[in-house]
């Protein structure tokens, strides 16, 4: 793999995992605000 291909792979992974984690954190915040 070339450097640019590796860079795109890493950036794509960060976007996917970052979005997944952000959605989980957001869902937990919404659930907490509803229970209070």
TrEMBL record:
Keywords: Membrane, Transmembrane, Transmembrane helix. The chain crosses the membrane at residues 6-27. This is MetS family NSS transporter small subunit. The lineage of its organism: Bacteria, Bacillati, Bacillota, Bacilli, Bacillales.
């Amino acid at each position: 793999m070339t450097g640019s291909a590796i860079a795109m792979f890493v950036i794509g992974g960060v976007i996917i995992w970052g979005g997944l984690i952000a959605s989980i954190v957001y869902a937990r915040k919404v659930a907490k605000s509803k229970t209070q």
